[in-house]
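Supplementary Methods, section 5.1.

A reviewer requested that the exact input to the structure prediction be made available. We therefore reproduce it here, unchanged from the version used in the analyses.
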Amino acid sequence: MLELRLSVDDLSRIRVIDTLGLAFEAHLAWNRLGEQRRDVFSEWRRAVRSRSRRSPLSSPPAESRGTLLEALTSGRPPEGDPFPGEAVEPFWDRIHQFLRAERDACGREVVTGGMEHVLNNRHPAVVWRSPTLRIDNVQPSREVVLVGQGLTLVPSLFAPRPFLIDREMGWHGLPILVYNIVPSVEDAAALWNGQSARSALQDLLGRTRADVLGSLRESRSTGQVADRLHISTPSASKHLTVLRRAGFVTTERRHNSTVHALTPLGETLLG
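The structure derived from this sequence is encoded token-by-token as follows.
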């Protein structure tokens, strides 16, 4: 069990953010995909496995400190790994909205019950008894004294349990407490049904062009789009030109590369 010693200064400096990003959630999602159970992730597993039959997924990212920290610090999935694009990116807008709702709920609870109430209502394995925040998980038992630096709370959809990211893991920023939130059956249906919107977009634009548009949720060069979707650079360039003429994509030169990004209209189309 982890025990975090929080001073009054620490409590006043706790902040809640909505997510550590798509790359971080994708790193955690691999183990969820391999689980053999019927739960709120069952429909997601079915959808991902169905897609993987058409585009085989790469080997899972190693469950190592370095890989986890890389996912946290880089903010973007590794190039050449199709798993994030197949398993998380199609659902990301809805996932992000779900996580933002949790962050907003924390904000309301701070107003009505104080930070102590927030800490005691995030997860059954996280318990606040002043001045100690106890986290019952699989990390080695130890005591952490925060000495006034504060703490970041962040919800995760794919994390299996709460865990702490701090110097012990090689992280030199503000300590981060990640806690998993389990969607209700209704919320899970809304999350995974986002795939139907993607299918409608494919019907409208064609599968490859819709995938090119979807790949630009993060700015990419023509070569990066081609590599990510396993298509030729000339093909990627052709689709990007059509999308740019339609007003969905903007293009600019950066150093020696041509970089593409979504326009507000393109973002609206993706939903």
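Residues 92-120 form the longest helix (29 residues). These observations are discussed further in the main text.
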